[in-house]
Design a protein that fits this description.
The complex is a heterodimer of chains A (316) and B (495). Chain A folds into two domains: 7-221, P-loop containing nucleotide triphosphate hydrolases (Rossmann fold, 3-Layer(aba) Sandwich), CATH 3.40.50.300; 235-295, Alpha-Beta Plaits (2-Layer Sandwich), CATH 3.30.70. Helix content of chain A is 37%, strand content 27%. Chain A has helices at 47-54, 76-82, 98-108, 113-126, 142-154, 172-187, 199-205, 223-231, 247-254, 272-285, 300-309; strands at 7-18, 21-32, 36-40, 62-67, 70-71, 83-86, 160-164, 191-195, 208-213, 216-221, 235-240, 256-260, 264-268, 290-295. In chain A, helix 8 (223-231) packs across helix 11 (300-309). The two termini of chain A are 37 Å apart. The model of chain A has no long low-confidence stretch (mean pLDDT 88). By secondary structure, chain B is mostly helical. Chain B folds into two domains: 18-253, no CATH class; 262-491, no CATH class. Helix content of chain B is 76%, strand content 0%. Chain B has 21 helices and no strands. Chain B has helices at 18-34, 37-66, 71-90, 92-106, 110-114, 120-154, 160-186, 191-197, 199-217, 222-245, 248-253, 261-273, 286-300, 302-323, 340-344, 356-376, 380-403, 407-414, 416-438, 449-481, 483-491. In chain B, helix 2 runs antiparallel to helix 3 (71-90), helix 3 runs parallel beside helix 7 (160-186) and helix 13 crosses helix 20. Chain B is flat, with a radius of gyration of 30 Å. Residues 1-7 of chain B have low confidence and may be disordered. Classes of the chains: A alpha/beta (316), B mainly alpha (495). At the A-B interface, strand 1, helix 2 and helix 3 of A face helix 1, helix 5, helix 11 and helix 12 of B.
C-alpha cells in the first residue's frame, strides 16, 4: 500500500500556450493519495487544458507535472494507463452496445478477458446499469451515457481520476451513486481531481479547492480556509429563550456583534473554539438561557463569486 | 516527493503489443462501419449492381463497334471499365476515412480514445486500415464480379499484367485518398468542413482517372506503372504529413476552424521581430539582425542547407564526371577570342542584357521561383531548380578539362569571383524554400505544424530581404564588372 504522504498528482508552474493564447499559466497543485481537489472556474478558465496536461494528452509549454511519480512528458503513455479521464462530454460510440464499448476500452487498457468481464459486471451493477448492458448506446439517456463514460473511466481501476463534470447530466439519485463511489475511491487512497460547476458537490467531495481564472489559480485552500480568507471571520449566531434586555450592552463590549434582535444575536469570532465556551459560561452566569449557538452557514458559492468577480491580480 | 510504493489497482493490466493495439482499433472501426447502412448500401450497390451494369455496357459497346469493324475501341474500353468499377467503391474509402477521423472528433468520442495508452501511430494506422479495408474489399469484389461477367458472357479475360496494374492503381488511389483524408481531417472540426476540403483530394483523383483513361485508350500500359509510382510517392508524403498531424497535441490544440487572419498576421509579425519563436521583439536593428537573427534563422534552416549542398555536390560530381567523358574538337574553344563585348552580348534566355540590374533581378527571380515551386512540391522542385544551372557548369568544367584546359582555372575565372556571393545566396534561398515546403511534413517539439510553417515562411522572407538580395546584388555587380576582367586577365582578351 502507498505511504501516507504519497503525492498522487503534483504540478509545478504548469503553463500551456496555443499560438499567442495562454490557456494555462503557472498552475501549481498537489493532491495526495486519498485527496480530492475540486478545480473550479468559469468556462474557458483553463480547467480542461490543465486536466489534459495532467493526463499526458497535451505537452506543457513549460513547468512540470508528475502523476503517481511519473513525469507527464517522459512517461505520458504509462500515465495514460494509470489515469482515468472523464471528459466533459461522454463521447460514446453510439452504434455499439454498452458491453462492446466497455470491452473495447478494457482491452485497450490491457485487461484480460476475464478481468474485463468481471469489471464490467461489477461497475454496471454498482451504477444500476446491468439491465442495459446489451443495449445500443444510441438508446441511452443523457444521464446513462454519462454514467457509462464514468464506468469507462474507472474500468482499469486507475490510481488517479481526473473528472470533468461527472454528474452534470445526472438525476439526484444517480449523482448520489457517483458521489458515494468517489468517496469510496477516495477512501481507497486514489488521487482525484474534480472539475465542476456544482459548488455544493465541490464542497461535499473536496478537501481542497482551487479556483482557476484566465489560466491562473487565483485562490486555493480547504473550503474552510477559503471562506475565512475571502469571507472573513466565522459568523456565529446565538438564540436565547427570552429577550436580552440589559445584557445586550455588556455583550457588545465583549463581542464583535454583527446584528441582533430581541432574542438573537450574531457576532464575528476569529477563534470560535475559545470564544464560544467563554460566551456560554458568561451567559450562564447572567442567567440567560441559550437555545442554540451555531455558525451561520456560508456557501462556497459566495467564495467563488467573490473570487471570479474581483479584478485579476487581486486574488486572495 | 514520496515514491509510489504499491499499485493499488485490483485489476491486472498488461502491456499490449503495438500490433495488438492497432488491431483493436481496426476491429472497432470496422464493426462501426459495417453497422452504418449509409456506408454499406452504396458499397453493396457498387460492388454488385454497378459491375453487372458495366459488364452489360461492355457487351453492348462491343456489339455496337463490331458493326463498324472497329473492335479495337471495345478492347480498350473493357480495361477502362475495370478501372472505373474498382475506383467507384474505392472512393468510399475517402468518406469512411473522413468519418473515422473527423467524425469521431465531431462527436467528441476522440478524446476518450486519446486518453488511453494507445500511441498516435496505433490510432493513425488502425484508422487508416479500417478506412481502406471495406472500400478495398468492395473494389476487388466489384472487379471480380465485372470480370466474371465478362468471362461468362464474352469469354474475355484480361492479361494478368493489366489486372495487376488495375489492382495496384485501385489500391494506391485508396491509400492516397485515405492518407489525404487524414490531412484534411486535422484541419477540420466537422464532417461538413472536411467534406468541403475533400475537394482537394477528389478533383485531382478525378483528373488522374481521366489521365488513366487516356493512357488505357492509347494502350500506353507501361505509363500506368509510372502513375502507380507517383501515387506511392504522394501516399508516402501524405502519410508522413498525416503522422505529423495526427497526434494528440495537434488534434486537441485545434478546435476552431474559423479563419483568424488578424491572429495569423500578429503571429507572423512576432516571428519577424523575434530571434526565436515565442520571444518578444529582440535585437531588431541592423546590427542585431546580422548578429542574432540571421544566425538563428540559419540554424533553423541547417538541415535544408545541408540537403541542398549534398544534392549540389552529388549533381556536380556526376555532371563533371559525365562531362569529362566528352571532348570538344581542337580549336572549338578559344578563350583568346574573348573581348569585352563577349560579355555584353550575353542576352540568352531570361537575361535581357548583361547589366548588373538585369543579372540581379534574374537571380532574385530564380530564388522566388524556388519559393513558389517549393510551396507546391514540399520543397522538392527547389532542389531540382538549383541543380539546373549549377550541374551544367560542372559538366562544362569536366568537358573543358578533357579538352586540354585547366578546369579549376576555368571555374576560378568564370565562376568564383561572383560565385563567392551568388552561391551562398542561392543555396540559402533554395534551402529556405525547401524548409518551407517540407514544413508541413514535420513538427517540432515546441511548435505545431501550422506554427512551424509560418515560422519557415517568415524566415524565408527575412533571409530573402536581409541575406539573399544583398548578396545577389554584390554578386551581380561582381559578375558584370569584375568577372569579365578576371577572365580577360587569366585568358587574355584578344579584342
Amino acid at each position: 500500500m502507498p505511504q501516507v504522504d504519497d503525492v498522487m498528482i503534483e504540478a509545478e508552474r504548469l503553463s500551456k500556450t496555443f499560438g499567442n493564447f495562454v490557456a494555462v499559466r503557472d498552475v501549481s497543485l498537489r493532491v495526495k493519495a486519498g485527496g480530492v481537489l475540486a478545480l473550479l472556474g468559469p468556462n474557458g478558465a483553463g480547467k480542461t487544458t490543465t486536466v489534459r496536461m495532467l493526463s499526458g494528452i497535451l505537452v506543457p509549454t513549460s513547468g512540470r507535472a508528475r502523476i503517481a511519480g511519473l513525469d507527464v512528458v517522459k512517461d505520458s503513455a504509462a500515465i495514460r494507463s494509470r489515469v482515468g479521464v472523464l471528459s466533459e462530454l461522454p463521447g460514446l460510440y453510439l452504434r455499439s452496445t454498452a458491453r462492446e464499448y466497455l470491452d473495447f476500452f478494457g482491452s485497450v487498457y490491457g485487461l484480460s478477458k476475464a478481468d474485463r468481464q468481471a469489471r464490467i459486471t461489477e461497475l454496471m451493477t454498482r451504477f444500476e446499469m446491468s439491465e442495459v448492458l446489451d443495449r445500443r448506446l444510441s438508446e441511452f439517456s443523457k444521464g446513462m451515457k454519462q454514467k457509462l463514460a464514468l464506468i469507462r473511466t474507472m474500468l482499469h481501476d486507475p490510481e488517479v481520476l481526473l473528472l470533468d463534470e461527472p454528474t452534470s447530466a445526472m438525476d439526484p439519485q444517480s449523482a448520489r451513486l457517483v458521489h458515494d463511489t468517489l468517496l469510496q475511491l477516495r477512501d481507497q487512497r486514489r488521487g482525484i481531481i474534480l472539475c465542476t460547476h456544482n459548488l455544493v458537490e465541490a464542497e461535499m467531495m473536496a478537501d481542497h479547492i482551487a479556483i482557476i481564472r484566465r489560466g491562473q489559480i487565483v485562490a486555493e485552500g480547504s473550503p474552510a480556509e477559503l471562506k475565512a480568507q475571502l469571507l472573513g471571520k466565522p459568523l456565529m449566531e446565538v438564540r436565547f429563550t427570552q429577550p436580552l434586555n440589559g445584557t445586550l450592552h455588556a455583550l457588545h463590549e465583549r463581542l464583535e456583534v454583527e446584528s441582533h434582535g430581541e432574542t438573537w444575536m450574531r457576532y464575528w469570532s476569529s477563534d470560535p473554539v475559545s470564544d464560544n465556551p467563554r460566551l456560554l459560561h458568561w451567559l450562564s452566569e447572567q442567567k440567560v438561557d441559550v437555545v442554540t449557538l451555531s455558525e451561520v452557514p456560508r456557501s462556497l458559492e459566495e467564495v467563488y463569486l467573490r473570487v471570479v468577480e474581483q479584478p485579476i491580480g487581486q486574488g486572495s | 516527493m514520496a515514491a509510489i510504493t504499491a499499485k493499488r489497482s485490483t485489476v491486472q493490466a498488461t502491456r499490449i503489443s503495438w500490433f495488438s493495439g492497432m488491431g483493436m482499433i481496426v476491429r472497432r472501426e470496422l464493426r462501426d462501419t459495417f453497422r452504418d447502412w449509409r456506408m454499406i448500401t452504396p458499397i453493396v450497390l457498387l460492388t454488385l449492381f454497378f459491375p453487372v451494369l458495366m459488364t452489360w455496357t461492355a457487351g453492348v459497346a462491343q456489339t455496337f463497334v463490331d458493326r463498324f469493324g472497329t473492335p479495337l475501341i471495345a478492347e480498350r474500353l473493357i480495361p477502362f471499365l475495370m478501372l472505373i468499377v474498382g475506383f467507384f467503391p474505392m472512393s468510399f474509402s475517402l468518406v469512411i476515412a473522413l468519418e473515422a477521423f473527423v467524425g469521431e472528433r465531431e462527436r467528441k468520442s476522440l478524446e476518450p480514445l486519446l486518453s488511453t495508452p494507445l500511441t498516435d501511430g496505433q490510432l493513425y494506422v488502425g484508422k487508416m486500415i479500417a478506412s481502406l479495408v471495406p472500400a478495398l474489399m468492395a473494389a476487388f469484389l466489384g472487379i471480380g464480379v465485372y470480370l466474371t461477367g465478362l468471362f461468362v458472357f464474352r469469354g474475355y479475360l484480361p492479361p494478368p499484367i493489366l489486372l495487376i496494374q488495375v489492382l495496384a492503381l485501385t489500391t494506391m488511389e485508396g491509400v492516397v485518398m485515405v492518407s489525404g483524408a487524414v490531412v484534411v481531417s486535422t484541419h477540420a472540426t466537422s464532417v461538413r468542413a472536411a467534406n468541403l476540403l475533400a475537394s482537394f483530394i477528389i478533383i485531382p483523383m478525378a483528373l488522374l482517372v481521366q489521365v488513366e483513361a487516356i493512357l488505357l485508350f492509347q494502350a500506353i500500359y507501361d505509363a500506368m506503372w509510372g502513375i502507380v509510382l507517383v501515387l506511392i510517392v504522394v501516399a508516402l508524403i501524405l502519410i508522413r504529413m498525416g503522422v505529423q498531424l495526427f497526434n494528440r497535441e495537434e488534434l486537441l490544440g485545434r478546435e476552431i476552424d474559423s479563419i483568424n487572419l488578424r491572429g495569423v498576421f500578429r503571429r507572423a509579425g512576432q516571428y519577424f521581430v523575434a530571434v526565436e519563436p515565442g520571444e518578444a521583439r529582440t535585437h531588431f536593428n541592423p546590427i542585431g539582425l546580422y548578429r542574432y537573427h540571421v544566425p538563428a534563422m540559419l540554424r533553423r534552416t541547417k538541415n535544408a542547407i545541408l540537403t541542398i549542398m549534398v544534392a549540389l555536390v552529388v549533381a556536380s560530381v556526376v555532371a563533371w564526371v559525365w562531362g569529362s567523358q566528352f571532348s570538344l574538337p581542337p580549336g572549338t574553344l578559344n578563350f583568346s577570342n574573348l573581348n569585352s563585348d563577349s560579355f555584353n552580348n550575353v542576352t540568352v534566355g531570361l537575361l535581357p542584357s548583361f547589366s548588373w540590374p538585369a543579372v540581379w533581378w534574374n537571380n532574385i527571380r530564380a530564388v522566388l521561383l524556388y519559393f513558389v515551386t517549393g510551396l507546391f512540391s514540399f520543397g522538392s522542385i527547389a532542389v531540382v531548380l538549383i541543380i539546373v544551372p549549377i550541374a551544367p557548369a560542372a559538366f562544362v568544367a569536366g568537358l573543358i578539362g578533357n579538352t586540354g584546359f585547366n578546369p579549376i582555372v576555368f571555374l576560378a575565372a568564370f565562376i568564383l569571383p561572383h560565385g563567392i556571393f551568388e552561391l551562398p545566396a542561392v543555396i540559402i534561398g533554395a534551402a529556405a524554400a525547401l524548409r518551407l515546403g517540407a514544413a508541413l511534413l514535420q513538427r517540432s517539439s515546441t511548435l505545431s505544424v501550422g506554427e512551424g510553417w509560418w515560422l519557415a515562411l517568415v524566415d524565408f522572407v527575412k533571409l530573402l530581404i536581409f541575406v539573399v538580395i544583398p548578396l545577389l546584388l554584390i554578386a551581380a555587380i561582381f559578375e558584370v564588372h569584375v568577372t569579365p576582367r578576371i577572365v580577360c586577365a587569366v585568358y587574355g582578351c584578344g579584342g
